[in-house]
Amino acid sequence: MSFLLTCPNCGPRDVNEFAYAGEVTTRPVGGASLRELTDYVYFRRNVAGVQREWWHHRFGCERWFLAERDTRTNEVLRVELPGPAETGAAHEPEVPETPAV
Predict the structure, then answer these.
(1) Handedness of CA 21, 24, 30, 31 (dihedral sign)
(2) pLDDT tens, 21-38?
(3) What secondary structure letter does DSSP report for 31?
(4) What does the alpha-carbon distance between residue 20 and residue 18 come to, in Å, rounded to a whole number?
(5) Does domain 4-84 have CATH number 3.40.50.150?
(6) What string of DSSP letters covers 42-98?
(7) Full-model pTM
(8) Average pLDDT of 78-92?
(9) Burial class (CB in 10 A: 0-12, 13-18, 19+), 77
(10) Which of 4, 5, 41, 75 is most exposed, with the fewest beta carbons within 10 Å of its own?
(11) Are 92 and 83 in contact (CB under 8 A)?
């Protein structure tokens, strides 16, 4: 099934220009158990309804972005560029006031 997907950078495009990369999940932190890691890697919620998903504009600007899409109708409700929380970017370390000697 084909539908339009709006790239935050390029605007509305045919979905065939994009690569679907799965629904947004939360990575286990700290000392995760084998069960938690297995669930993270292999299992998805796969809801019939609205879910947040990763998309890549592979035949355009090549940017990664998030989309909220209704899986029953393929209606795209919202798209956005990822923030630091989604990308896993670490907080910049603070620069000390005096140099180490």
Answers:
(1) negative
(2) 999 998 898 899 999 999
(3) S
(4) 6
(5) no
(6) H-----SSEEEEEEE-TTTT--EEEEEEETTT--EEEEE---HHHHTPPPPPPPPSS
(7) 0.76
(8) 71
(9) exposed
(10) 41
(11) no
Q: Fill in the amino acid letter for 81.
A: L
CA-CA distance, 93 to 101, in Å (whole number)? 19
Provide the residue type at 35 as one letter: R
Residues contacting residue 49 through CB under 8 Å, at least 6 positions apart = 70, 71, 72
Q: What count of other Cβ atoms lies within 10 Å of the Cβ of residue 69?
A: 23
Q: Classify 4 as helix, strand or coil.
A: strand
Residue 2: what pLDDT?
82
